[in-house]
Amino acid sequence: MAYAHTNSKGQTYILHSKNVTLRGGRQQMIFFFARDEREGALDEVPAGYLVVENKKTGLPMLKREK
Question: Minimal CB count within 10 Å: which of 11, 15, 35, 46?
């Protein structure tokens, strides 16, 4: 089951990851939230990250733990 986060406005978002190629040719894993479940959905928050919410829009984001 994919990790879901419900924000303060009552909307549910699913956590996903994807490998992208940067301009220099380097591969990097990105994390993003979407309202629907797609390919690359994650079962849990990656180690070393926290889910935070944008106060203005309510969109969830991942932030590295300190």
Answer: 35
